[in-house]
Specification:
Blueprint (H helix, E strand, L loop, with lengths): L5 E4 L4 E5 L5 E4 L4 E8 L2 E6 L2 E6 L23 H12 L17 E8 L5 E7 L9 H13 L4 E8 L12 H6 L3
Length: about 180
């Protein structure tokens, strides 16, 4: 769900990440914030004039419900079923500044699954950022790894940030181009 500049007040202090630097800060209780994006499992808000990202686990601090967990897949699933669910899960990860998921943005360059002896899968993901200097890269990569690893059929996840080839607007999907008015 995308929100249009909705104001609210924090009910408790909450940890947040500055966008785009990735610096962690504390937003005190009683701070008026403007929610600019509520997609995936996090919220982008303006607090004290700074765009910050608040994790979905802390949604209660801004009066919202915790976003639902990613879809699940049982151990023993086929590689095709697992790959489809991994891609669905990747579509729940969003750039904090752009209201489009990382798959539609064209940030995921590679997603390979390798069967393991225990019937689960190892996942290797190469992804990039819209801007190489973005401090949110590690935060987004960690979100990707955490969400994919939460799938019961997945035993290991390796997320690599790559910048060759560099990302450009031609990597946007048709859906993303329409959403951005391009």
């Amino acid at each position: 769900m995308r929100l249009q500049q909705e104001k609210t007040t924090t009910t408790r202090s909450v940890q947040a990440r500055c966008v785009p630097s990735g610096e962690q800060i504390e937003v005190p209780a009683g701070t008026t914030v403007t929610i600019t994006q509520a997609l995936g499992s996090s919220f982008s808000v303006i607090a004290g004039g700074q765009l910050v990202r608040i994790d979905g686990a802390d949604a209660d601090a801004i009066g919202r419900a915790v976003p639902p967990p990613p879809p699940t897949l049982p151990k023993g699933a086929s590689i095709e079923e697992a790959k489809e669910l991994v891609w669905e899960t990747l579509k729940t990860c969003y750039d904090p500044e752009i209201p489009i998921d990382i798959v539609e943005l064209g940030l995921v360059y590679r997603c390979d699954l390798e069967p393991q002896e225990d019937g689960r899968f190892k996942v290797e993901i190469d992804m990039t950022l819209t801007a190489p200097g973005c401090g949110m890269g590690e935060v987004i990569a960690n979100e990707v790894a955490d969400k994919v690893l939460a799938l019961p059929a997945i035993s290991q996840v390796d997320v690599q940030m790559v910048f060759d080839p560099p990302w450009d607007r031609y990597r946007l999907s048709e859906v993303a181009r329409l959403a951005l008015g391009m």
